[in-house]
Amino acid sequence: MVLLRTSRETREIIANQCNLSASNIQDAFPCTPLQEGLLALTAKRSGDYIARYVYNLRPDLDLENFWKALKAVVSATPILRTRVVDLADHGLVQVVTDLNPVAAFKPWIGTLKEYLDEDRAVGMGLGSIWRKTAFNFDLALILT
């Protein structure tokens, strides 16, 4: 925990920017110059450098086991639970949380285009979850 050793106040500032409890924060450390550059470019043109993958799932897929496996991967992979915040004294900082965003996946009803348009409009900003999961009842999975 490079930054979290600095002060309890820093931890609280990070938690507020992420809209989380300070107890949900596992680690925090500076972004690399490459990450900072990509974030600056994305801020100028929302949607750039954001990947969206759409997968068609087999109808016979055991969804319960699939979600368990996906949750396990996210739990074991800190970058999938990482957000970025801007701290006055430290600049852009990566924040690893203990929250598993797969646990709150978003089911949707409607066309794939409608979902993707809505997802693009919402975007991904500082402090927000950077990996989203959605599926519909036609067994399409979207990872953003």
UniProtKB/TrEMBL annotation:
One of its GO terms (cellular component) is cytoplasm. SUPFAM superfamilies: CoA-dependent acyltransferases. GO terms for molecular function: ligase activity; phosphopantetheine binding. The keyword Ribosomal protein does not apply. Keywords: Ligase. GO terms for biological process: amino acid activation for nonribosomal peptide biosynthetic process; secondary metabolite biosynthetic process. InterPro entries: CAT-like_dom_sf. PANTHER family: NONRIBOSOMAL PEPTIDE SYNTHETASE, SIDEROPHORE SYNTHETASE (EUROFUNG). This is Uncharacterized protein. It comes from Clonostachys chloroleuca.
